Amino acid sequence: LEERSSTVTKAKITQKRVWDELDRWHSRQATLEVEMQDMEKPEEALILTERLVEVQQLHSLVSKQAEQRTTLLSKIHTWLHEHQEMINSSKSWMA
Q1: Which domain holds residue 22?
Q2: Could you tell me the pTM of the whole model?
Q3: Mean of the pLDDT values across residues 22-46?
Q4: Which keywords are on file for this protein (predicted)?
């Protein structure tokens, strides 16, 4: 998420990869939760559950960052259009 893209198109492609990876991450978490319920040693299950909670919190944080980036990307086209209108308006005043 910290990687910068040189174009909006590249940023959108990167963002799609981020969402795909977050989806895979979520699926793996769900699989682990199910497998942990079948564990025979409660002590190990407790330790793994605590670690899984940490992973879930990290997933939540990364998801929020991805949502913010998606929102930002969705606004870029409008901002570029407004910027171009300001440039055109300035040029007409200068002419």
Answers
A1: 8-94
A2: 0.76
A3: 89
A4: Membrane, Phosphoprotein, Repeat
